[in-house]
Amino acid sequence: xxxxxxxxxxxxxxxxxxxxxxxxxxxxxxxxxxxxxxxxxxxxxxxxxxxxxxxxxxxxxxxxxxxxxxxxxxxxxxxxxxxxxxxxxxxxxxxxxxxxxxxxxxxxxxxxxxxxxxxxxxxxxxxxxxxxxxxxxxxxxxxxxxxxxxxxxxxxxxxxxxxxxxxxxxxxxxxxxxxxxxxxxxxxxxxxxxxxxxxxxxxxxxxxxxxxxxxxxxxxxxxxxxxxxxxxxxxxxxxxxxxxxxxxxxxxxxxxxxxxxxxxxxxxxxxxxxxxxxxxxxxxxxxxxxxxxxxxxxxxxxxxxxx
Amino acid sequence: xxxxxxxxxxxxxxxxxxxxxxxxxxxxxxxxxxxxxxxxxxxxxxxxxxxxxxxxxxxxxxxxxxxxxxxxxxxxxxxxxxxxxxxxxxxxxxxxxxxxxxxxxxxxxxxxxxxxxxxxxxxxxxxxxxxxxxxxxxxxxxxxxxxxxxxxxxxxxxxxxxxxxxxxxxxxxxxxxxxxxxxxxxxxxxxxxxxxxxxxxxxxxxxxxxxxxxxxxxxxxxxxxxxxxxxxxxxxxxxxxxxxxxxxxxxxxxxxxxxxxxxxxxxxxxxxxxxxxxxxxxxxxxxxxxxxxxxxxxxxxxxxxxxxxxxxxxxxxxxxxxxxxxxxxxxxxxxxxxxxxxxxxxxxxxxxxxxxxxxxxxxxxxxxxxxxxxxxxxxxxxxxxxxxxxxxxxxxxxxxxxxxxxx
Lengths: 307, 407
Hints:
The structure holds 2 protein chains of 2 kinds. By secondary structure, chain A is of the alpha/beta class.
């Protein structure tokens, strides 16, 4: 019993406080050293793409749905215009991050000369507006310090032992996703992840905000808003009715907006991907073939607008 | 003054940790105003029948507000008030009802106890907050810090990763429904008990003792013992408001049915809670009968079946889907494929959670577990293991929320 008591005292008065202090130290270290390297590199490369063009006619904006699913190079070939892809993972995690990313990547002069903006946002099909407003995450996905580390100690140890390899997100000369260096892997079905389209009041708030932002950034451009779609055949709740209502409501809002004198906005809604063979691992992100399919479809829908 | 300080500390911690609302300050202030007004009314009314009526009205107002969808029924996912003005209403109204029916004339300072945002956002009903500051700080830390560490482990390491299994709720075949019910039981326990233990420890270190809301519910051999360890603050309110007065007039069976239906109504006016209340009343009554007849083992089997079936019903407020589940159709073991495809942290959580429940159950008669106050998890060696696992596994990737709080 004497020895048990000593062990208990050692654990409670020395080892447990030591662990707690070590944990606090780990939190600070983890915050200092956290880097989402693949996203960081991708963002940096996209900025270089934007700098490498003296001018461009069109720009693709949005989140990963458009990064994987739309090709600036293909659009350029189809339309004989110059396009770049300045989409960002998770659309920069917040509107403010993304806005700053665009202004820091594309000079004011270049933005003045842009004629077409394609904007494809995942926010229309996921209820993440509040989360985006309240997030403290920066554009590469780093959170502010909190009592929980962003990565667990286990994941750091696993990485140091060589069990975790982070895949780069390759970027092409037009800012497109470089599928040549990125094997997509097997398609994983996620049938229970429902599509959750924005309701009317959220949509009004979202539209007003977006149109204002994009009009400020690209004052001479025609804005083409495309409602993205995924592969829906395996979904338990594709919510086609929700999507129909969303598009209807978007049209109403844009019609009212057009009556206010802003006529350079065009809305289009894309069809779902016809096969899981066009998807890169999940039912939202296209693979190379899927990107070709979606880009072609979008071009057919908007080609009259590009004249 | 100390109570106001405690309320302020609670407010800050609530704002930092739990607030999902666009107007969090309203969520803090409105309960306080409601409590002030209620207490003012109580104090103007002499003790007697009118006060009793007010107490019952207060308790049942949660059901009325839930019926009109002003506050959401409990769903198991994030349960916020649909109206921020009614943040925490079900908890402070129950707490006020408890005080009034106990014939305590509440003072205005009681508002700061009852409406502490930390309690309202996590779940334990403030039946009492006793001053404990006469104990020296290091003694309080020695006693209460282990509760915080155990609670933190349950909440963050066991419960949080289990949210990855929630898609299983949509599967209606028998095996998937049962698997989900079992996992959801573990989730609710680890989440709610974890938060309750953290608050118990936190208030204790600040020098205040609040009720211990969970007492190893799985250290039970029948449903009666189970309810002596599960959500004790609500049980105390229900016992005082319903069991004690009704038992004087009716048989225990009738009293238990009323009691469980009142509990069901507090959780939400939905069909699934009605069925859940009836089921638990039936299990409770059958257990009393079996124990009186001295029939062994069967109460334990009923306990296990009652908990699993009860949770299956409790978890699903979608009536069509629930009715489909209750047909118990066999469609293979697809649920296990889903479990196998879950992230490794979720699988670890499942193992640790069921391991803890197994310890609670199989060692329930040992000295360490007999008092049902988590002493086995509060020993220095257990805390060291718990802390090491926590430090090793914790990250911010999981969605955390209080399963019972806020409504």
